[in-house]
Design brief:
The protein has 381 residues and is of the alpha+beta class. The protein is 36% helix and 26% strand. It is built from 14 helices and 14 strands. The chain is globular.
Length: 381
C-alpha cells in the first residue's frame, strides 16, 4: 500500500501547484480541455471570487512517499445553497488523482473531515462554488472532446468512487451533440412566426452600448429566475453579477447572444440564449492554460474570427410562464442562421438535468445525440 500525505493549501505557491496538477495529469490527452490558468487562480482565490461571500473552502494536495503531487481536491461549503435546499453538504470539487485508490480515498477523507468539523452531515460532488463552475463527474463519453465549461476526467475516476463504498448517485447530467442544419428547421421557423404574432414576443440583439447601459444585469437576473429550481442552485449575488457583466459579457461575440422580450409587457426580458464558438481546440493549444506566448492568438482566432467548427450552447433560459408558448423557437430561429454563416458544423449543449424533459425536448428538431453523461455523488458523514 502506498503512503499518501495530505497537505492543506496555504500559500500562493501551493495554489499554483494545485492548479498546475491538472495540466500535468492530462498532458497530451486528446479529449481534455484545460481551463485558463489565471481563471482558475482567480476562482480559487477568496479576494477574487465573490462566491466567498457565502462559501467557505479549503484545498488539499496529496503527496506520495517521494514527495510528488499525486492528487488534489477542493472542499467547499455553499452556505446559501445549504440554507435554500435544507441540506448540510460539503462539496468536493477540482478533484484529480492518479490511478491509485489510496490517493482518491485520502483526498475524499480530507473533504469529509473538513465537512464534519463544520457540522456537515453529507459530502456531495463534484460541484464548484456555484452552478457557474464545472460540475459532475464524467461517467460515459470518455472518447468525446470536452468543452471549456465542463469537467473531463479519466474513466477510472467513477470506478474509484464505486470501489470506495458508501457513495450513491445524487443526480445525473446529460449533454447533447447536434449537427448544424443547412437551414432553420421548419418547426422552429413556424413556431417563431406564430409566437411573434400571437404573444408579441420578439428577438433583441445586444450591443456593447446595451451592456454598458445596464442591460447585462437584466440577463443575469433572468438567469437567477430561470435556474432557481435546478439542483444545488444558489442565486447569483450582486457582486457575482457585477463580475460577469463587467468581465465576461464583453468577451462574447454578441451576435451569438439572443434575448427575447415581451413587447406586450413593456419589453420585459423573458428569455436568453448565450452561445459562443467552441474554445476546445484553442484551449488545447495553450501552454498549460497560459495566454502567453501564443495562447492568446489561438483563443482570438476562435472567439473573434470563428476559426472553429463548433459552437457551445452555454446558457439558455426561458421564464417558466413562457416555455409553453414556444419562446425557445425564437432563439433557434435567430441563432441557427448565424451558425450557418460562420461555418459552424456542430453545437453542443452544456450539462442538463437528466429529468429536465422540457429542456431536452427543445433539441428535437436538431436530431440530438446524448453523447455524454456525468454524475454527482453523495455520501453520508
Amino acid at each position: 500500500m502506498s503512503s499518501i500525505t495530505i497537505q492543506k493549501v496555504e500559500t500562493k505557491k501551493q495554489l499554483r501547484s494545485f492548479v498546475d496538477f491538472h495540466y500535468a495529469l492530462y498532458k497530451d490527452n486528446p479529449y481534455d480541455v484545460p481551463n485558463l490558468f489565471m481563471d482558475e487562480m482567480n476562482t480559487l482565490t477568496p479576494s477574487k471570487n465573490p462566491a466567498f461571500e457565502f462559501c467557505d473552502a479549503e484545498y488539499y494536495l496529496a503527496y506520495d512517499e517521494n514527495g510528488k503531487i499525486v492528487g488534489r481536491v477542493a472542499a467547499i461549503i455553499n452556505n446559501k445553497a445549504n440554507k435554500k435546499w435544507d441540506r448540510k453538504s460539503v462539496r468536493f470539487g477540482w478533484i484529480d488523482f492518479v490511478d491509485d485508490i489510496n490517493v482518491s480515498r485520502a483526498l475524499l477523507d480530507a473533504v469529509a473531515d473538513y465537512g464534519r468539523s463544520k457540522g456537515m452531515t453529507e459530502i456531495v460532488g463534484p460541484l464548484g462554488f456555484t452552478d457557474m463552475d464545472p460540475e459532475g463527474m464524467l461517467i460515459w463519453g470518455f472518447d468525446k472532446l470536452g468543452t471549456m465549461p465542463t469537467i473531463y476526467n479519466y474513466d477510472y475516476y467513477p470506478r474509484h468512487i464505486e470501489q470506495l463504498g458508501g457513495w450513491e448517485k445524487d443526480t445525473d447530467y446529460v449533454e447533447y451533440y447536434m449537427r448544424v442544419p443547412e437551414k432553420v428547421p421548419e418547426k422552429y421557423s413556424r413556431i417563431a412566426e406564430m409566437v411573434e404574432q400571437r404573444y408579441h414576443l420578439r428577438v433583441r440583439k445586444l450591443t456593447m452600448k446595451d451592456v454598458r447601459a445596464g442591460y447585462g444585469y437584466k440577463v443575469f437576473d433572468l438567469i437567477n429566475d430561470t435556474y432557481k429550481d435546478l439542483y444545488g442552485f444558489s442565486e447569483l449575488s450582486q457582486k457575482q453579477i457585477d463580475q460577469y457583466v463587467k468581465e465576461y459579457l464583453p468577451m462574447l461575440d454578441l451576435s451569438l447572444v439572443t434575448c427575447i422580450e415581451d413587447a406586450s409587457a413593456d419589453n420585459k426580458l423573458v428569455g436568453i440564449g448565450i452561445t459562443m464558438p467552441s474554445m476546445s481546440r484553442a484551449m488545447q493549444k495553450t501552454r498549460r492554460g497560459r495566454l502567453f506566448p501564443f495562447g492568446w492568438w489561438h483563443l482570438l482566432r476562435a472567439v473573434k474570427f470563428h476559426k472553429t467548427e463548433g459552437v457551445d450552447l452555454l446558457l439558455l433560459g426561458i421564464l417558466p410562464e413562457y416555455r409553453s408558448k414556444g419562446a425557445n423557437a425564437l432563439l433557434f430561429a435567430d441563432l441557427i442562421p448565424r451558425y450557418i454563416d460562420y461555418g459552424f458544423k456542430w453545437g453542443e449543449s452544456q450539462v442538463e438535468m437528466e429529468n429536465n424533459e422540457n429542456v431536452q425536448r427543445q433539441w428535437g428538431a436538431l436530431n440530438p445525440e446524448n453523447h455524454k453523461r456525468r454524475r454527482c455523488y453523495k455520501k453520508q458523514l
